[in-house]
Amino acid sequence: MSTGFLRDNRIDDDDDFNARPIHLPPRSTTTVTSRIPTKTTHHIPTTTSTVFLDLPSSPHSTYHIYHDRICHYTLGPTSEPDKEDSFTPAAKAARKARRAARKAECAAAKQKDWSHYPADEEEGAVEFFLHSPHLAFFNPPRVLRAGSTKSAPPVALIHNSFLWRRWSIQLGAVLAEPGVIDPRGVVGWRFNSDKGERKKDTRLLGGYKVRNFRWWGESGKGYVKEIHRRRKENTGENLKTASPAPTPPALADQVIYLTWTSPFSRHTRRYHFRYQEIDFYWKGTGTVRETRFCGSWCRFNHVKLVAAVPLPSPPTANHSQQKTKEDVKLRGKGREGVRTTSICLAKYTSAVTPLKCGKLVLYDDIMLHFHQTHLHSQPHPHFAEQISSRGSGFEDDTLAEFKKTRFYHVVVATAMCMVIGDKQKRETIRKILEIAASEGGGNA
């Protein structure tokens, strides 16, 4: 059996992974590096020899992340010129047209029938929408939807914590069931679970009541009015009517935790999550170089997603007695002595414009092959034939099915947690500096 090698040609400014040549695990069939890929090499084992196919470019999906209203976010494959630069005449005209379209949308929403759950978008959407519902005196989770609007099917609930240290992401098919996520964007009260039980089992969902009054600015104005109208109509009905059977609490299939690992260190741009016994890191990278004007000042605008794939120990008798820095790569408890190699799966570049957060690039072919090889899933039967025949990517239907997988949604959800956290940190630091400057000027 042939043995592949992997070499990290360059150590990033905050890269702690091994840079020496190391053996790939027997189940691995891809040779990549932890750097942002510009040329992908697919290692396909055969019965007699090893064939290396060099692809001229890596097929990828680009998502432009924009602010929607105040607290929502849209992720789409197309760029919006009016949100890229705010000072051009074209941007001003586009903003005026967008305001007119928003007024028309609000007028249409008043005539909308809120007696039923809004219709979902058609399947196969390649866009995402992060909805941030607002309820007074509550902090409901954000909802990641596989579509471009608030009526798209929900795929994940994102909970934040104090000072951005930990994010919990609930995933499961139950979120897309009718009534679980109501038009307000929160879990309905019928599917609520006990607060004490939620501490024991984090997969349980917490619901929110529709109160008899609505505070100004809360989500789901039309839906709340419809509920209030129904309650008035049902007043005075026969109380002896049998009540419906209680609905069991909704239970998510899986919970992923994204942790800000080192807030007070030189590696502040590092987030960690674990998925199917594999560690993933969103971490800053210095290998990306901007070619535009003042591009050298954008060194800290890029973050990459790497997967730390465990490697088998070398077949040496005294390996257990030789413990070096290269042998310990994961800082988790009980992970000492585990040798890993890093595979780059995605890249995020932040933007300085007020209406755009940044650009997320997902390397589809690497992610698909990694998913089939390491995440306990059956490999595609024609995976090698597709690469050999086309040499430039995969079939559109294969990628379309892959973008519906939970792993793809986990990557997008963790990326949005990182984006929101970094944005709020920058705003907090800016406000602190403004207060300090104003106090200093006042004392002068």
UniProtKB/TrEMBL annotation:
Region Disordered, annotated ranges: 1-21, 313-332
Annotated source species: Lepidopterella palustris CBS 459.81
Protein name per UniProt: Uncharacterized protein
Taxonomic path: Eukaryota, Fungi, Dikarya, Ascomycota, Pezizomycotina
Residue spans of biased composition, Basic and acidic residues class: 323-332
